[in-house]
Sequence to fold (359 residues):
Amino acid sequence: VIPALDILDRVPLARHTTLELGGPARFYLRAKGEADVISGLEWAHRRGAAVAILGGGSNLVVGDDGYDGLVIEMVQCGIEEQARGDRVLITAAAGEEWDELVGRTVSAGFSGLECLSGIPGRVGATPIQNVGAYGQEVSETLVSVRAVDRETLAIVTLDRDECELSYRDSFFKRHPERYVILSATFALTPEGAPAVRYAELERALAQIGSFDLPTVRETVVELRRAKSMILDGADPNGRSAGSFFMNPIVAAQDADAIVARAIADGIAASEREVPRWPAEGGRVKLAAGWLIERAGIAKGMRLGNVGVSSKHALALVHHGGGSTRELLELAERVRAAVEARFGVQLVPEPVFWGARLPM
Ligand SMILES: Cc1cc2nc3c(=O)[nH]c(=O)nc-3n(C[C@H](O)[C@H](O)[C@H](O)COP(=O)(O)OP(=O)(O)OC[C@H]3O[C@@H](n4cnc5c(N)ncnc54)[C@H](O)[C@@H]3O)c2cc1C
Fold:
């Protein structure tokens, strides 16, 4: 331990990722405030060490050899509220637990984050892949982020447009070396109506007979629980990184060809059975989970100590005692099956440190 900065040596990352996989971080720092982040960056710079930023480790695949550099874990807390016209601005520090923030805004009667209930991880990571679920994304309410510019060590404010948010993507995800997010500000609507846009959610709410904010939050959590998409230590599908692949977005004619092929091959009886949604620029978003199952990869399939979630074909799970190498072999098998069957290249959703798919 180096006294001034409390930099730890060789910290196993498996216990900091929801997959519970991955080797050690060569150096590790828990950053409790902005000064720790800047000092950590300076310390690594002096040593020529690489730096990676860690939140809750719920969207992360770490290689078995670990990370050969400094991992800075974001644990700083603090939430501020400020009225702004007919909105309320909520600024939360990067280390705040995301779902606690969502719960708090729902209890206060502020709409804007309710459908993002039950997503693991911390606030600072939500802009990274423009977290989204059940018809809502943080891009709809994010106003700005405060960040350390790793090139200059200056603290900057980036507005939403500068974050370049799109489907499970952002400037930050494409340029992981550039910024450390310190806090994020969201504009929410007091007494606003919840966003009920997702057919499955709408059906569940109609059955309950209530569409108010707390019911939306509870229902989203229940729908997620049924798919093992919330963190639950008792769930046999519990060790995962959520969806392992993104839903592919393809040209309209390619989507038509996939539908035609699925019908010709007897995988779908009609066009209606192939789930797809309109995406930007006239393109079409396909359901990765559907493609995986129809490519012959069944829910619950196992390969050694890893497997496909028995609740959701899109989640790969670690059953314990496994390795990242096994997980990557499984991921590659899934990817290759979908490519062989549909000609579609699935792209992983999590971030990889010291690991990659063969591709
Ligand atoms: C069961 C389960 C369900 C999930 N469901 C969803 C879902 O419905 N929708 C969805 O979008 N995601 C989902 N995810 C993925 C994940 O929860 C989110 O992406 C979440 O925002 C990751 O937060 P984290 O703090 O765990 O980030 P980490 O996994 O720690 O980090 C992810 C990436 O963000 C970077 N990062 C983290 N914090 C910062 C920061 N402060 N500054 C700069 N970079 C940073 C890291 O370097 C890394 O590249 C799910 C995951 C699990 C395990």
Summary: The chain has a mean pLDDT of 96.
